[in-house]
Amino acid sequence: MTVTPPQGTPPVRDTVIELERVTKVYRTGTISVAALRGVSLSIDQGEYVAIIGPSGSGKSTLMHILGCLDVPSSGQYHLAGEDVSHMSETALAEVRNRRIGFVFQQFNLLPSMTAWQNVELPMVYAGVPRSSRKERAMEALSRVGLAGRVDHRPGELSGGQQQRVAVARALVTEPALILADEPTGNLDSKSAADVLRLMGELHDAGRTLVLITHDVEVAAAAGRVVGIRDGLLTDNDQRYLESVR
Amino acid sequence: MNWLETLRTGVNGVRSHRLRSFLTVLGILIGIAGVIIAVGLGEGASGQVTSEINALGSNVLTITPGSTTSTSGIREALGSASTLTMSDVAALASPVDAPDIKAVAGITSSSEVLTAGSETATTTVQGTTPSWLTVRGRTVAQGRFLDNQDVQDHAASVVLGETTASELFSRGDPVGQTVDVNGVPLTVVGVLTSTGSSTSSSSTTDPDDTAIIPITTGAERIFGGTSRNSVSSIAVQARSSADLSGAYQEADHLLLQLHGITDTANADFTITSQASLIAANTSVDHTLTILLGGIAAISLIVGGIGVMNIMLVSVTERIREIGLRKALGATPRVIRRQFLVEASVLGLVGGLLGVLAGLVGVLWLPGLIGDPISTSPTAAVGALVIALAIGVLFGVYPASRAATLAPIDALRSE
Hints:
The complex is a heterodimer. Chain A contains eight helices and ten strands. By secondary structure, chain A is of the alpha/beta class. By secondary structure, chain B is an alpha+beta fold. Chain B folds into two domains: 182 residues, no CATH class; 186 residues, no CATH class.
């Protein structure tokens, strides 16, 4: 089942995400739990998609597979044209490094490093030369409005600022996909609005964003909403959105 | 990610947990310092003994009275252990009967109190002949050594060792002064050159803490005793080290003949060479070194287990960090290297500080325990290598645990 893109998008666009009948089954001893039961989804470049579902719906599992943190039990996943369904852990690490920028609910900044050192981290693993790393980290931080805080450690920044550092870290490698997992879950409403506005700006600048949330208001910020329930995508996302409203 | 980046990340990891890293390093530090001090102590002890034995002179055999438990009971009628006499010395000195022997010195010795004015010193007084100087390979710093005239005349002459001379005559020239031994006034005719090996604190083994008198003077006026003709040991010098075994056989043969002994098992004397003395002492020191080194090695292993323990704790505690690094593109290999480097840095820093602490101990301990400890660069370098190896060895398991963590499990942990 392919969810058709909303009307009004240009007809010729590169597909960033192409999921085909993806399943994920977790086995604990003799019990198997199907977290995803055949998910097909296509996301084009430049789209801003929210995946919304209650807890236990399989949205975390979907996020892990989209983020190449886990591989599907069956089905196909093409990320930026590359089949990543059966890759080794090492190959997946490289795909994550090159293609995906993560924003987590818990920010996940390293407390012993300054803001710019945190932003630099993915470039360290990518083998970017030291000289250009700092420059690019500074650029990314000024883009999220933290040019004056580059030498602060996470502990010296507010929650909203920490999440903006995380966004800077996600976009610094120019990834094909920015994957945000409940990015506003740990923020007060004002900081949450700031982060959502920032994501909107990234979308306007042509980035592909996937936002995973259980919050309808957060999902409303996206251009397209995909619902997930019991391991299946709901066939009409707009109707789903209205139904939960 | 290259090694330099990995190293930087690893060092950062160690530095961001200062107290924990310090305590881990402490375990390695103690082990390495222990190894260095133990090896130094062992080497110092054997070096000291070897130099003392070498100070006895080169190519020297020492003949001492052996057991007198001869079953015949007749020959030993006097019941004296003084089975060696001046006639034995004279026989051994014969170039015809003992061509491999270069010089012989009979020695009687006793610990006596020397008095010079208000100063006193207890030292080993040795009665001997002029050949002693050659046999022992010593030289005279001031004045002269005993000569044959002194021996013939039972002269009241004495030659002092350097240590004894400075104890009795802290100021001024000892030569010409008078020293009282057992109420007998002796004139100091010379002072021996220091052997330079007097590192020992015990006077019995210090070759510079001695007083040499003519053997005749000793027998008649100082030591007294049962037989005025007997000696407590005979020092025999071979012509060269190649002649040492020849000299040994000649001395053995001559003495058995002179003492009328046919069965070598009943020999009433023992001949020892420096080599056998060194071998005996070395084996004792060797055992000591192994014992101390073993204890130090155990503490090193305990230190290594400490590294492993801390690294395992570190992996568990930093599970989110590992997850994040993996999400950002760190491959299992990079994560493994990071933790291996952290463990190696702990080992290496522990090793460096341990070598430093060991060297401080080596400098400071001899003053405290009175035994020399030698500093061995080999031991220091070896200890460093061992410390690094321990870091790597005990870091492998925690590092591969970190490397094989699934990124989602690592990220999920709260």
